[in-house]
From TrEMBL:
It comes from Galbibacter orientalis DSM 19592. Keywords: Aminoacyl-tRNA synthetase, ATP-binding, Cytoplasm, Ligase, Nucleotide-binding, Protein biosynthesis. The lineage of its organism: Bacteria, Pseudomonadati, Bacteroidota, Flavobacteriia, Flavobacteriales. NCBIfam families: glnS, PRK14703.1. Residues 458-532 form the tRNA synthetases class I (E and Q) anti-codon binding domain. This is Glutamine--tRNA ligase. GO terms for biological process: glutaminyl-tRNA aminoacylation; glutamyl-tRNA aminoacylation. L-glutamine binds at residues 65, 209. It comes from the Bacteria. Residues 126-145 are annotated as: Disordered.
């Protein structure tokens, strides 16, 4: 039973344990590059690695793969930590690849001494031209057979800052005719005169990804290093580098690959998301339209909704496109359990209940959340003048319209049955007000015969004199195409949806005054909303997280 529900990554670990790998030595890492904010794709990798840590009671490091000072920043380090914590995971240690710069340098010196690395003084174009093709061997660099002394001297001077960026590189001396192009003397170091967010100007040579990643895993004694499929071909190089440095008594990290997750109608690439931010298409990395963890959080997603989504899509060996509606489904499902219900009207139409007394102080009892184990209630003010949604009234409609029409009845949620008597119009014929009468004996929960009378429709409403005006931000998909970055010859920015944000006024029952930033609500019959950090004491701002699929039947 248990066996069957394991994913292929768990099978790899189980097989290793069966073959005698010491369970105490299991260790994982999540290795983001701090060159942007984490996105929903990263959530898969986070849940995979930290989930394995929980399952096997093994440490998981948060490792920053910070080897490219041109793109990395402290702001991103901070944001990544915040997002991993918010998802509910605890790392064992925070590590940085930059912690290992000295060790990597020392190892590289050993490589040179052992004839396994050389300084190449060609341009990157020349090096690229010599790579060959997968079916034809590459050409040796004229510098490939430099003496150990010359290589040691040049490498030291590269480190000392004697050369311009791009003038020399250190290459591993492996095999220029390997069928794996990555094995054709890969670059280990490049010169880059750029300050690093942690090591500042200590270094002007920076190690390449392939040279850094496996060695960092080894230093941290990570047993299983999971990465996405595009690194499958890198595995041979990962192992080659490890073989040169590792002590057989230590854990030999194992790289294994899983499929990247792609979400429809958005982009999951930090580099491309950065363009949306830089070009002002969104208002920052945490814009609620962004597929970043921080954007989803601000939009009103809960950690559980994201984790449940990730669990549902699972870990795969092949890439495929996941429809964004599946993510929305999980938001709805989790918020249905957690979000208190309140009433809000977003497109108001004034209703005057002509036979209701003026200046009363009546309240109706409203259930906070029918999903709660112990039901709680609040008092919502009712009055002679209320707002309902414009679309909930028609002068005339067929029998399938279960809302308010002239001569017809509806129940106001938790309150009375009203009947529409007259539509008041402006000069242009637009309905600006509806006059109704109510049945004073029909109050919900009052126990009278009338209160139990069945009418087809139930509408949400707010008392005009008590309602709070708020700003509501409604979002649509950020891109009009399912895969905006997979259109040959077109830039993904061509598919930005120009109408992805709509700002409107809303009227909400007064209990909302106590809401705090981040609080979630279900606006009944409309959807899930949460309080945006842009809110002030004067005005609350709500983000629409997701709409309700079904309006209630009661
Ligand atoms: P990006 O292109 O967005 O920068 P990346 O892979 O370069 O993605 P990293 O910071 O290196 O980003 O990612 C950290 C970890 O998350 C890596 O192990 C990476 O493979 C994984 N990861 C990144 N994007 C996805 C995705 N879409 N689906 C699953 N895992 C991902
Ligand atoms: Mg990366
Ligand atoms: Mg990247």
């Amino acid at each position: 039973e248990e066996e069957k529900s394991l994913n292929f990554i768990e099978h790899i670990i189980e097989d290793d344990l069966k073959e005698g790998f010491d369970k105490e030595k299991l260790r994982f890492r999540f290795p983001p590059e701090p060159n942007g904010y984490l996105h929903i794709g990263h959530a898969s990798s986070i849940c995979l690695n930290f989930g394995l840590g929980e399952k096997y009671d093994a440490p998981v490091n948060l490792r920053f793969d910070d080897t490219n000072p041109a793109k990395e920043e402290q702001e991103y380090v901070d944001a990544i930590k915040r997002d991993v914590e918010w998802l509910g995971y605890k790392w064992s240690e925070v590590r940085y690849a930059s912690d290992y710069f000295q060790q990597l340098f020392d190892w590289a010196v050993e490589f040179i001494k052992n004839g396994k690395a050389y300084v190449d003084s060609q341009t990157s174009e020349e090096i690229a031209a010599q790579k060959g093709t997968p079916t034809t061997p590459g050409t040796d660099s004229p510098y490939r057979n430099r003496s150990v002394e010359e290589n040691l001297d040049l490498f030291q001077r590269m480190k000392n800052g004697e050369f311009e960026s791009g003038t020399h590189v250190l290459r591993a001396k492996i095999d220029m005719s390997s069928s794996n192009m990555l094995m054709r003397d890969p670059i280990m170091y490049r010169i880059l005169h750029k300050a690093h967010h942690r090591t500042n100007t200590d270094w002007c040579i920076y190690p390449m990804y392939d040279w850094t990643h496996g060695e960092s895993d080894y230093i941290e004694q990570v047993s299983h290093s999971f990465c996405t499929l595009e690194f499958a071909m890198h595995r041979e190089l990962y192992n080659w580098f490890l073989e040169q440095v590792s002590n057989p008594n230590q854990v030999q990290p194992k790289q294994r690959e899983f499929a990247r997750r792609n979400l429809s109608h958005t982009i999951v690439s930090k580099r491309k998301l950065l363009r949306l931010v830089e070009e002002g298409i969104v208002n920052g990395w945490d814009d609620p339209r962004m597929p970043t963890i921080s954007g989803l959080r601000r939009r009103g997603y809960t950690p559980e909704s994201i984790k449940n989504f990730v669990k549902t899509i699972g870990i795969a060996k092949r890439e495929n496109l996941i429809d964004v509606s599946l993510l929305e489904f999980h938001a709805r499902e989790d918020l249905n359990k957690k979000a208190p219900r309140i009433m809000a009207v977003l497109d108001p139409l004034k209703v005057v209940i002509t036979n209701y007394p003026e200046n009363t102080d009546e309240y109706v009892d409203s259930e906070n959340n029918p999903e709660d184990e112990v039901l709680t209630y609040r008092k919502v003010p009712f009055s002679r003048e209320i707002y309902i949604e414009k679309e909930d009234f028609r002068e005339e409609a067929n029998r399938k319209f279960f809302r308010l029409k002239l001569g017809g009845e509806v129940r106001l949620k938790n309150a009375y049955i009203i009947k529409a008597e007259k539509a008041i119009k402006d000069e242009d014929g637009n309905i600006i007000e509806v006059h109704c009468t109510y049945d004073p004996l029909s109050k919900s929960g009052s126990g009278t015969e009338e209160s139990k009378r069945k009418v087809k429709g139930t509408l949400h409403w707010v008392s005009i004199k008590d309602a709070k005006e708020v700003e509501v931000r409604e979002y649509d998909r950020l891109f009009t195409e399912a895969e905006p970055d997979r259109h040959e010859g077109k830039d993904f920015l061509e598919f930005v949806n120009p109408d992805s944000l709509r700002v409107i006024k809303g009227y909400v029952e007064p209990s909302v005054e106590e809401a705090k930033i981040g609080d979630h609500f279900q606006f009944q019959r409309i959807g899930y909303f949460n309080v945006d950090p842009d809110s002030t004491n004067e005005k609350l701002v709500f983000n629409k997280t997701v709409g309700l699929r079904d309006s209630w039947a009661k």
